[in-house]
Structures are given as C-alpha cells and as structure tokens.
Amino acid sequence: MRVLIWHVHGSWMTSFVSGPDDFVVPVLPDRGPDGRGRARTWAWPDAVREVEPDGLRDEPIDVVVLQRPQELDLLRAWTGRRAGRDIPAVYVEHNAPPGPAATTVHPLADRDDIVIVHVTAYNALMWDSGRAPTTVIEHGIPDPGHRYTGHLPWLAAVVNEPVRRRRVAGTDILLRLAADLPVEVYGMGVAALAKHEPALRDRLYDDVPQQLMHLMLGAARAYLHPFRWTSLGLSLIEAMTLGMPVLAVDSTAAHDAVPPGAGVVSADPGILLDTGRRWLADPDEARRVGSAARRHALRRFGLPRFLADWQALLKEVTR
Predict the structure, then answer these.
(1) What is the pLDDT of residues 42-73, one digit of tens each?
(2) Were 50 and a residue from 37, 232, 247, 314 both cysteine, which residue would form a disulfide, CB within 3.0 to 4.6 Å?
(3) What domains, with CATH codes, occur in the chain?
(4) DSSP string, 210-260
C-alpha cells in the first residue's frame, strides 16, 4: 500500500513508518511545516520517500493519512483529489481539544467519509466528533532498550516550548519542583527557560537527537511529566520503556497510562515533590518502580500492536 502523509510529529511518525507500507511525504525547499520531508533526527526506513508538491499528481496513492485541517486543502491543491471522496482518508487527531474541553467541535465533525483516529480514549471522549466515524489507536513505540541506570541524583523532563506553552505544559509545576530538587529539561525551545530561571541554565538541553537523549534520560533517577493539558506525551511512554520511574501530573490520559507500581500520578505537585525526594534518597525503590514501568509500557505501548491496529484500519478504509 502507498500512503501519503505529512511529517508533523516526528516521534509518532517514526513508529508509523515502521510498518510494511510505502510512504510518500511532501517536501518543500524550506522544509517548513507543510513540507518537512524525511526526518533528520530520527532513523526512517528507505520506504519513506520525499516528493515535491508538483510531483504528487503522478503518484499512485492508495490512502492519505491527514493530521491537520489544512491538509484537506493541500491534498486537493497538490494532487487534485478530495479526501474521503476521490481517495480514501483517515485523520489522526493527536491532541486533546484546546477548549472548552468538553464542547469543542472537531474540524471534521460534519464529515462521515473520513475516520477520525484518536490516540487516546480520553481524547475521543472529550472531542465532539459529530457524525464522523471514530476509533482509537493508542501510541506504540519501538523499544529503545532498557537504558535506565538512575545513577545521577536528579529528575529529567521533556517539555517542548516550555515558555510559550507555560500553563499547558506545566512549566510552572516543573519550576516549582526544580526549586527544591535538581531537574534536567530536554526539548525544543528549552534554552529560552534560561532567561526566566538562570539556575537551570546548565541543565537545559535543546533539541537533542533522540538516541542520545534516551541515554541521557536513562541516567537520571526519575522522569517528570508536568503537563496539565495535553494528549498522552510520547516522551512519558518512552521514559517508561527506558525503565525509568515516572512522576506525572494527573491530567488527561496520564492516569490511565501509568498503573500503580509503575510510577506516581497525582494532581498535587506536593505529592510529586515528596515522591521525587524519596526516590533521590532511595535508588533501589526507584529502580523497582522503573522496572515495573518498562514491563507495562512494553505490553501496552509496544510497536507490534500499534502497527497491527493501523494495518487493520488502512485495509478497512481502502477495501
């Protein structure tokens, strides 16, 4: 099967293109948001091929996987085909509704010819998807291997654009814990935190390649997931798969993703702080919790299940 898909979310896409299909990704000269082409910080198979917009009309595409509303117009302008009518299509909704939380109408709510694929049951519950057919395919990731050593006595967090997304990303919660516990922060745009929190300047790692980041994360004693309102972050799943014990704000799908014994999930930052302090003092407990987290993540968020779910859906919509 030949799949047209835009490169939007690198980590999710890395899992998706691990399947058995051929993938066409649009590319523009500036590699901007509508044409990023192949990833540069993830390893993708040769089955992922870049095609410029003026070459897409000649591509024998079997199905298009959409991820943003504007891709409906891009598809028609670049291929001459209409999603769901001239070509089978599904729409991956990566995000929780931006608000109001329970009444936001999905952009495809009035369409019955495109399946909306939510990445968590929580997202599916909260979006008003109207008459659109919906399903849930939870995240799945390649196993990065057990990388946890926990020999460095600090917490690690991955937060993209923590200044711009301060409340949503829980940056204030992160900084509250960082005032009492040592914390490293990884992600795109984290260097901007140095202006606001000079004490973190030497522990901010901006846009680190994934494999290196996994090694660096695994050296930290525990992982902190401070997000208030987001879909289920792949970084949380990756941390669990690395074998890290996790501390997570009890919001959106985090509670469902982290079972008892695999970490601590709480809406009370004080509980996260106390647990982090305890794990820093007790590496044996942290290691036991991290091992349970890895076992759970491999069972629930393993790549084979993810790919099987996607194959079943793509075959159904192209039948």
Answers:
(1) 889 999 999 999 999 999 999 999 999 999 99
(2) 37
(3) 2-140+303-317 (3.40.50.2000), 152-300 (3.40.50.2000)
(4) HHHHHHHHHHEEEEEE--SS-S--HHHHHHHHHT--EEEES-TTHHHHS-T
